[in-house]
Design a protein that fits this description.
The structure holds two protein chains of two kinds. Chain A is of the alpha+beta class. Chain A has helices at 6-9, 13-34, 36-44, 66-71, 105-121, 142-151, 164-174, 183-195, 217-227, 340-348, 379-382, 386-404, and strands spanning 85-89, 101-104, 129-132, 155-157, 178-181, 207-211, 230-235, 246-248, 255-257, 262-267, 274-275, 281-287, 298-304, 306-307, 319-320, 325-326, 331-333, 336-338, 353-364, 367-377, 408-414. The longest helix of chain A is centred in the first third of the chain and has 22 residues, at 13-34. The chains are: A alpha+beta, B alpha/beta. At the A-B interface, helix 2 of A face strand 1, strand 2 and strand 10 of B.
Chain lengths: 423, 243
């Protein structure tokens, strides 16, 4: 099975741990001396960077949360002067509580190489034509597929969010061999293909590289059987690199985490207590080589388990299970992250509604497809004319759609006394 | 080949190295760069056994060498080339070179062969064979020091500031020699003020700052690192705002 960087990807675990240890100490030194936030954190915890002598000692460092990133917005978490930064990126859908992540030229280089590792690992070569059908506007990771593919010499077709018919036309005319997209968009293309009676055999597609939303095994099986391609998962964390933290190999038996650049831990989401291998919990990542935006023990809110034993593909890099659930309230609907903070913010800008609301998602093939929000409204609104309520629903619908980037179904509900929570 | 783990080193009560962890693989040229007082020379002294006061782990080919005396380390091929007093000035060039092989207890024929190898790298030393080392120029002394180190059949050589105080053409010559030694398979751990030249010939490098490792990367990575450029690459570097 193809491996782009065999020196690292098949390094024996002992040597890998030594490399991680060496890099950890450097990142701790950098974070402590260059990032005020981390210096304060260490000092408050009565911890000196000199106390971190091994990966074991990492546990003594307090976690970093998304809240910390928000509180230190915009540049408080940066470890290099702004003039060394060549890219500033912010997760869309979080304008209300923003964060911004910086990357140096070297950071971007590493990122590109990691995406290339995943691509090479699933058999993509310079002979392939990769159709990237991610939303370049809403998903800033989309461009990484271009760079990763170009670095291994494959041809990129940034088809973006052209309608399924156009995607199929491109696929046929250009003889695309790889589709990179959200799994839900792939399903949609497949549906259209079946509806139009297009025989998958007439296309050249052989590989699907899917990510940016949770997708269960049944979706993989459905796509693979009905399309006759191999489908692989790619994983990232927007506060670090997305995509590029981990990716499946041809064995399709978990995603290899790039442990030479990220040190993974699994913790109990409630207590923060580290959990051993093979036990599901929240993934916590420490960057080992990031220059601009180093993160120590960052809580990703993604739930998975780690498996350190070597893989049948020959890689020694630990594998993580595919992420299907979150430990926080964020949901992903058709590849778009929906944060509760965002919904609260929209509701706060309307009189007489919220703060209580409920969300529910309808699923298609086990994947989130439609988001429905039940919003609590005041008795005055509930007893107003249907026309007035309809207008409010429309206004909320528009505001939410604008804020989240997703069409949602809005329902007004009676305010429950004393409640203000969400489900 | 060489692995240091959590090296702390002291001068009396003053701590000069703080949990330094680094490694050198066989065949690599690894540079240590950093400002004066960062702890570079102390680190070399810890590796060669010349600095007594340290804690941590020093592995050579996976063997813990804590407590080894300098001569035992030399016998295992770890050879430091100190910044000053690198040659015995009253002795001749030839005697200096022979002393380099002292621990190897070579027979006359083998010794002669080894000398020939060194003379092939440094023809100037053959010309000066019988001259007292004290009469050599700075560049020639540096070559003699390197030659003496090679006579020990080193597995790892550690030159400390080999270009210090030398004229630019001689500096270029010294780096050319280091590069050719690397190409022949010698493993080098280099301490050098001339960061630009050092990084150019390095497979990897570490940046030390007040006793701590604060950066690492390939030579090329660090040559392009803005922080390194600002701190060590001198006045021919201009940031993007200054241009």
């Amino acid at each position: 099975m193809p491996i782009l960087n065999p020196t690292i990807e098949t390094l024996d675990r002992k040597a890998l741990l030594e490399l991680q240890n060496e890099r950890l100490q450097i990142v701790v030194n950098q974070a402590y001396s260059n990032v005020d936030f981390y210096r304060r954190r260490f000092d408050e915890a009565g911890l000196s960077p000199d106390d971190i002598k091994s990966l074991e000692d990492l546990k003594r460092i307090p976690f970093t949360s998304r809240k910390d990133l928000m509180e230190n917005y915009p540049y408080g978490m940066f470890a290099v002067p702004l003039r060394d930064v060549v890219r500033l990126q912010f997760p869309l859908g979080l304008y209300g509580n923003p964060i911004v992540i910086g990357y140096t030229r070297k950071d971007l280089e590493i990122w590109r190489d990691l995406v290339a590792r995943i691509m090479a690992g699933i058999g993509i070569t310079e002979h392939d034509i990769i159709q990237v059908a991610f939303n370049y506007g809403l998903f800033q990771g989309a461009i990484r597929f271009n760079q990763g593919a170009e670095s291994i010499g494959a041809a990129v077709v940034p088809a973006s969010i052209a309608p399924a018919e156009v995607q199929l036309r491109i696929m046929k005319d250009f003889r695309s061999t790889v589709l990179a997209s959200t799994p839900s968009f792939a399903l949609h293309i497949l549906e259209v293909m079946q509806k139009k009676g297009i025989d998958p055999q007439t296309l050249s597609l052989k590989i699907g590289l899917f990510g940016a939303e949770p997708w269960p095994e049944e979706v993989r099986r459905f796509i693979e059987t009905n399309w006759g391609i191999k489908a692989y998962d790619i994983y990232g964390v927007m506060e670090l690199v997305e995509p590029g933290v981990a990716g499946e190999c041809m064995a399709q038996d978990g995603l290899h985490i790039f442990e030479d650049h990220f040190f993974p831990e699994i913790v109990d989401p409630a207590s923060g207590k580290p959990l051993g291998p093979d036990r599901p919990g929240e993934l916590v990542l420490t960057t080992l080589t990031t220059s601009a935006y180093p993160l120590l023990r960052y809580r990703t809110s993604d739930v998975t388990a780690l498996h350190p034993e070597p893989c049948s593909c020959g890689r020694t890099l630990a594998r993580m299970d595919r992420v299907l659930t979150r430990s926080d309230q964020m949901t992903t609907v058709r590849g778009i992250n929906v944060f509760p903070e965002k919904i609260q913010e929209v509701l706060a800008s309307f009189a007489g509604v919220g703060p209580g609301y409920t969300t529910s998602v309808s699923q298609k093939k086990g994947m989130n497809d439609q988001l429905k929000i039940g919003i609590e409204a005041s008795p005055e609104i509930m007893s107003a004319t249907e026309e007035r309520r309809g207008a409010l629903r429309d206004a909320l619908h528009l505001a939410l759609r604008r804020a989240i980037g997703l069409r949602v179904e809005v329902e007004l509900t009676k305010r429950v006394q004393g409640a203000g929570g969400r489900v | 080949m060489l692995k240091l783990k959590n090296i702390d080193a002291f001068f009396g009560k003053i701590q000069v190295l703080r949990r330094v962890t680094l490694h050198v693989e066989a065949g690599e040229v690894v540079s240590l760069i950093g400002a004066n007082g960062a702890g570079k020379t102390t680190l070399l002294n810890v590796i060669s056994g010349m600095h007594p006061s340290w804690e941590g782990s020093r592995l050579f080919n996976e063997v813990e060498t804590r407590g080894w005396r300098p001569e035992k380390l030399v016998a295992h091929g770890i050879v430091q080339i100190p910044e000053t007093e690198k040659v015995f000035t009253p002795l001749s060039v030839l005697e200096n070179l022979e002393l380099g092989a002292y621990l190897r207890r070579l027979g006359r024929t083998v010794l002669q062969e080894e000398l020939e190898k060194v003379f092939a790298v440094f023809p100037v030393l053959r010309e000066r064979e019988n001259q007292p080392a004290g009469t050599l120029s700075g560049g020639e002394r540096q070559m003699l020091a390197l030659g003496k180190a090679l006579m020990a059949q080193p597995r790892l050589i550690m030159p400390d500031e080999p270009s210090l105080g030398l004229a630019p053409t001689i500096v270029a010559e010294i780096f050319r020699i280091l590069r050719s030694l690397h190409e022949k398979g010698t493993t080098i751990l280099l301490v050098e003020q001339n960061a630009k030249e050092a990084l150019r010939i390095s497979t990897r490098a570490y940046v030390l700052d007040t006793g701590r490792v604060i950066l690492t990367g390939t030579g090329a990575d660090l040559l392009n690192n803005e922080e390194v450029k600002r701190a060590f690459l001198g006045k021919d570097y201009q940031g993007k705002w200054e241009r």
